[in-house]
Specification:
This protein has about 290 residues and is an alpha/beta fold. It contains twelve helices and nine strands. The structure holds S-adenosylmethionine. The site of S-adenosylmethionine has 22 residues, from strand 1 and helix 3.
């Protein structure tokens, strides 16, 4: 069998032969350690019955490992210069399809319907481009792409925020947005040395298990997310002040907001970062009841 793409020598050889130069603006940090790739595919629990969506295959380092373990891989790559390289490196695998599109603009739902109809289990597995990690994850969750889970590499700092518990300094509207749809945990931390070129920040693999239904039930999702974002607008301020200053009709309705907080059993002097998802859900319910957000 040929040497893995993700070895320093083979990666260097591929890049040199194709005269490829990294584009920092596209978050191009390629993996050069087969052990890390092995751990990523193990964490994703891949079998031949699993379909995989990859974002940003690069020169195919992770794609190759996914193709070996999963039934089928569809990879979105924005950089056209990588297409001839992927044609060459992935030639031994007949279960991979590369789509030359910006994943943020792509119609992923239709791709899933067309490409994965016969798969019962679908995972997103990727070493994400760091300049757009949050928009990519949020797009796939908000568009309700029917995936079972995500195993993705991202900046450790973003992984900490996504998986944070209430009352920690990392907890915020991103933790709530992701935990609303998934059970989130950090699988393992990754050293900078496994990338070419090494990124400036520490990295982590996070695991998101998509819930059958959201963690809490809310009447109006958009308003629930508005309330959570507004509650964290100024972290040092009380939840009451943030809501009064941040909700569109907050200032005129201060008394209603106070009573909505009380009705939800939330002391108005608390800070947003102490509220659980369940508390934010009941707060958005009592706010709506008082005519706020309608
Ligand atoms: N998977 C490869 C690896 O692990 O070695 C490369 C990962 S690299 C961190 C991120 C990849 O995402 C690059 O190949 C980059 O060109 C691609 N990319 C960046 N922005 C993208 C976007 N909006 N849509 C699709 N691919 C993107």
């Amino acid at each position: 069998m040929m040497k893995d793409i993700a070895t320093p020598s083979r990666t260097k050889d591929i890049l040199a032969r194709h005269r490829f130069s990294f584009k920092k603006s596209l978050g191009q940090n390629f993996l050069i350690d087969p052990n890390i790739l092995q751990r990523i595919t193990e964490t994703a629990g891949l079998t031949k019955e699993t379909g995989v969506i990859e974002i940003g295959p690069g020169i195919g380092a992770l794609t190759e490992h996914l193709a070996r373990s999963a039934g089928k891989v569809v990879a979105f790559e924005i950089d056209q210069r990588l297409l001839p390289i992927l044609d060459e490196t992935l030639a031994p695998y007949n279960n991979v399809k590369v789509i030359n599109e910006d994943v943020l603009k792509a119609d992923v739902k239709t791709v899933v319907e067309q490409e994965f109809a016969e798969f019962d289990r679908l995972m997103v597995v990727a070493n994400l481009p760091y300049y757009v990690t949050t928009p990519i994850i949020m797009k796939l969750l908000e568009d309700k792409i029917p995936v079972n889970g995500f195993v993705v590499m991202l900046q450790k700092e973003v992984g900490d925020r996504i998986s944070a518990e209430p009352s920690s300094k990392e907890y915020g509207s991103l933790s709530i947005a992701v935990q609303y749809y998934t059970e989130a945990s950090i699988a393992f931390i990754v050293p900078k040395t496994v990338f070419m070129p090494p990124p400036n920040v520490d990295s982590a693999i996070i695991k998101l298990d998509v819930r059958d239904k959201p963690a809490v039930s809310v009447e109006d999702e958009d308003f629930f997310f508005t309330v959570t974002r507004t509650s964290f607008a100024q972290r040092r301020k009380t939840i009451l002040n943030n809501l009064v200053n941040g909700l569109p009709d907050g200032k005129e309705k201060k008394e209603h907001i106070t009573s909505a907080l009380e009705e939800a059993g939330i002391e108005p002097s608390r800070r947003g970062e102490t509220l659980s998802l369940a508390e934010f859900a009941s707060l958005s319910k009592t706010l709506l009841k008082k005519g706020i957000g309608k």
